[in-house]
Amino acid sequence: MTNFFQRLPGRGIAYTTYAKQAEAPITHMQVAEAAMKIDEAEFHASRAATLVDTKAESGEAWTLEERARVRMDAGMAARLAKEAIDILNMASGGSSIYSSVPIQRIERDILAASLQGMIHPNTNLELYGRIRCGLEPNTVNI
Fold this sequence. Notes:
Blueprint: H1 2-7, H2 25-58, H3 64-91, H4 102-114, H5 121-132
């Protein structure tokens, strides 16, 4: 969000009467929604990391559900981070596509990360749901 806020002062919203984007209610809503998605992503990443650390320290065996939940948490963290960046990128307007504007690179980076097979949100949601429904995993990577 830092990058978004660095560009905010002095920015207007094209084809509106908002000379200052920071004064527009839509901007307030976009910033709040992105912030909540980032908080939610941090929750999932933290929960996964805590379980990984706990298991590594104790040496206790992983259950199938724990392994699936860590993957689901990774997928949700990626999805929520991508959604937050999408909101901020949209709020940044057309100039956000320029290579000199870092948010376009950030958006591409989070997209690339979320498409990775072990992190892909849809794959991991399905996997976690299958396990919760008492079915066998449909992947060899668990």
